[in-house]
Amino acid sequence: MSNEDKSFLQTQISRRDVLKIAGIGSAGVLLGASGLTGVLTAVGANPFADDDPTAVNKVNFYGKHQSGILTKNPQHVYFVSLNCTAKSKQELKEMFQLWTQYSVKLMNGQLVEPNSANLLLPTADTGESEGLDASNLTLTYGVGPSLFEKPELGLQSKKPAELKDLPHFPKDQLDPEYVGGDICIQACADDPQVAFHAVRNLIRAARGKVTMRWSQVGFNSYQKKGKKTMTPRNLFAFKDGTGNPNVDNSKDMNDVVWVQPGDSKGWLTGGSYLAVRRIQMHIETWDRTSLQGQEDTFGRHRDSGAPIGKTGEFEDMEIDRKENGKPVVPVNSHVALAKQVKDRILRRSFSYSDGIHSKTGTFDAGLLFMSFQKNPSQFINIQNSFGRVDKLNEYITHRGSALFACFPGVKKGSFLGAELFK
Ligand code: HEM
Q1: 3-class SS at 233?
Q2: Which of 317, 375, 318, 387 is nearest to 345 (CA)?
Q3: What domain range includes position 12?
Q4: Which of 172, 231, 234, 240 to mutate to test the pocket of ligand 1 (most atoms within 8 A of CB)?
Q5: Nearest residue by C-alpha to atom 8 in ligand 1
Q6: How many CB atoms lie within 10 A of CB 421?
Q7: Residue whose CA is closest, atom 29 of ligand 1?
Q8: Ligand 1 atom 25: residue of nearest CA
Q9: Residue 28: inside a domain, yes or no?
Q10: How many domains does the chain divide into?
Q11: Per-residue pLDDT tens for 160-209?
Q12: Ligand 1, from 231, 340, 369: best to mutate by most atoms within 8 Å of Cβ?
């Protein structure tokens, strides 16, 4: 064990934990790094926080891939993009080591640290998730292109060639307040307060190493039919996610989502690229549009989600089918244009509603579009196919944009992004 790792270990294990692990109940024990390792080895304990199989409504932290990518039916998201202010690679590494430990505990529904009874100190955990269960919290971490441009971090040689800002697309009207970021955290949970609590405590613990750049909360609502969970509807009332690849099909996921060995820099194998777009939806204009016009916009029926001319949500859309010489599905509809390219992506978007635009008196609402893909080009090719042609352009404006490379999953005993810091 290196000295760095020893000191990390020391800071991660509370004194109470050490005493508990060693079976020592009395105070007054002082341990150096070697003494601490000795105690832990002697009792055969794993010093790292571990997934708690008894936790209620829990998603596991450890695994081949990060949580929050294939995890189904996310209800609430707190997404935050961060600036990195760490002064060295070592500082950044320590932050991810601490976040690893905290993430395991948060996803167990536990406090990040036990609180002391000292009324004169701030509490170790901010406390607003007290009494709530894990709420299927998932935490997904990614790093943006700008992180690799910081000379003080010395990560330039680790930058994958494809990790660069998304290009300007026709009709983009980006607001600098919602663009880019060095690091991102996507916290999804069934309870919005659990998601918020997670992000708040992670950022609190990383003070001096990150500052907040932009954030967005979002939601999804799911109709249930018996035990079946239906595709959620976006704020235009259309089912959103129908055409997604099947997350239970591991071959598809390897083809679409997970970076494979040799695809990119080694540290990203098993990871994925996250494209984030904050897309304003002009719902007042939409609400003045006929149902026919709305269905022609997507190429699907609103209520059933079926392709135009069909009845089942998951029936094949035949974009070349014609009736009386006219295409059944409009060629400029959103889905027909997405199907023009062979690239696929895994969409995992959320609606947002952020009050009103003070200048126009209209709703500030839309879609926090998020897609995972093993190469950003998959997203870029689809967005370029929409170009200026997509009928949906009349009703939306892209306001925010960012791209992140999301780490692979974490093995027990290791930490987020470990391969990046080797
Ligand atoms: C506010 C913006 C958007 C809205 C409201 C929206 C809505 C929808 C809806 C209702 C569908 C049909 C049902 C489904 O398959 O999910 C759909 C399909 C799709 N959308 Fe979007 N979308 C938006 C933006 C985007 C963006 C930015 C992309 C990627 C660049 C994208 C890519 C796709 C793809 C790949 C499909 C599936 C096509 C297929 O069936 O093969 N969408 N979208």
Answers
A1: strand
A2: 375
A3: 1-47
A4: 240
A5: 240
A6: 19
A7: 383
A8: 369
A9: yes
A10: 1
A11: 999 999 999 999 999 999 999 999 999 999 999 999 999 999 999 999 99
A12: 369
